[in-house]
Amino acid sequence: MSSAITHARAGADVRRLGLACAISGVLMLGVSVFTVFPPDGVPDDQWSYPQTPSQLLAISLVLAVAHALSVGGFIGARRLAVAGGGRASRVGFTGAVAGLIALGFCELLSGLIAEEPLDSGVAAVVGTLFGLSSLLFAAGAIIAGIGVIRAGRWPGWGRWLVLATGVVIVVLVTPANAVGDPVFRWVSLALWSVLFIPLGFQVARGLRPRS
């Protein structure tokens, strides 16, 4: 294993990418906390439920920005060559980035259709796009995360974070959305959000020397 790679430090651009990712986690976690106590009187057959349309629009804008910032963690990790230079890892990181960008776009659409009935055609389309974007991100993060672990270039527990962001989508977030239980959904999204904070800081710190 190359010493230069093992001891790689993040340059200024990679540090900024990592910090952007960490900020995204804080923003998403903040949204999760905000939604713990939803307002009363929102129809449960409305797309924005349990939030009011204006609240959902604001939340959607924040989450769209957060997903854009999250991209920094995956671009930064790829620049650090934490998964080596294999084709599979490159495809994985590309898929994860594409999935996050698509999720940001879906958040914007979600805010715009806040008052639509849940059984409307446009709601079905946006819901489907959310599902496909989430799965694209999860697949990419899992492929890239496996590459990170196998490469062994990222010392310590940080090597598991990329994989964890994808696994949580599959194991928790997707089932929570399918079930529709507000508490299950809140917990799963909060756990997913938290992962981006240490991921961002790990990228910003670079590949630390092994002790």
UniProtKB/TrEMBL annotation:
It comes from the Bacteria. Keywords: Membrane, Transmembrane, Transmembrane helix. The chain crosses the membrane at residues 17-37, 57-81, 93-114, 120-148, 160-178, 184-204. This is DUF998 domain-containing protein.
